[in-house]
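Hey,
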Amino acid sequence: MKFLYKEFFDRALIEKIEKSCLELKDSIRKAAKRWGFLQIKSDDELTNYFKKQEGRWKRFVQVGMGGSVLGAQALCSFLGVPESKSVKFIDDIGDSFFSSTYSSETLYHIVSKSGSTAETIANFIHLINHLNKKQKEQIIISTGESGFLKEYADKHGIKRFLIPENVGGRYSLFSPVGMAVANFLGYDTEKLIEGARQAIKNLASEEPTFAYLFAVIASEFLKKGKSNLVLFCYSEKLLHCVYWFRQLWAESLGKLVDKNGNRVRVGQTPIVARGASDQHSQLQLYREGPLDKLFCFIQGPVEKGEKLRISPEFKQFDYLSERSLGEIKQAEYEATKQTIAKDSPVVSIEVDSSSEYSFGLLTMNLMIATAITGEILNIDAFNQPGVELGKRLTKQILKNEI
């Protein structure tokens, strides 16, 4: 995996960025001791459960909101789902989301760290209304050390897995939140953890590494008015990873006050763009609209595929001859980067393999980069007070109190 930041930056800026990374090392190492999401380990209980259940379930349905779904969905999208199995993620409200899932061959995974997320509980109630007495057999629950879901699972004898208390939902990919579906599909979870641990080891490196560089660059350009981070993804395998990261970046860094209680209203809005399709829906704005954006281009392994054979009728398109569709998309990726870089700052993430190790390395690096950025901005990257008001008002409306 590569993080490219020197392509379009001048020497003075590169030196400034790298110097800032090295100056951060000591303070970040101290801060990282408090980051619960770095304390990852193999979960033998989870692994053994799925080994015993092997062959019993053909479909896996994960029900949650935000970080309780997005990371697991990104994992499945990147690594792929075998034809013999199917996976569905439900992170919205509606009967239609469940209608195609009712089957005795389906395992339902209910996820909520707090155990009281209203949308998740509503979907859970809808589900048990249909499953009735089968709920004990077809449901597993991942939740925190306390809360409604823990109590319900224990009361009804439903298999329950623990989300560590010091790991927030959006940082919980390497807990049962993400590892349950990884085990269901037979992924090598040790390789996933190995990749994540490599990203953690890189925190101690004496060289500027991915997480430091990403955090420093994002913070530097935020100070310069680049209040939007455009995540331009040129890989279908990585698209859901980008959606996961969008939530991680937005909820972690969008804060009204800093750690000292000062009103700062800080944050950088993450925007997802899909290459090559959004070259025809957003690129005009990016090229000639407000210069308030930092761009991060994201590329996965280039698909080789079969070469195009051009007949005489397509002679005007002979530049496509003997090129695969993957090669054409790669050319679009390079061209769009160069186009954007004429007026806006551009960095790139390039993932060279579709392996468990690569996914673990990438996602842990992005979580660490987010936490480092929080330290640079002097805000709490692990809370989400701005979400709570909407939750309270929803309950009041349903109780006819407003």
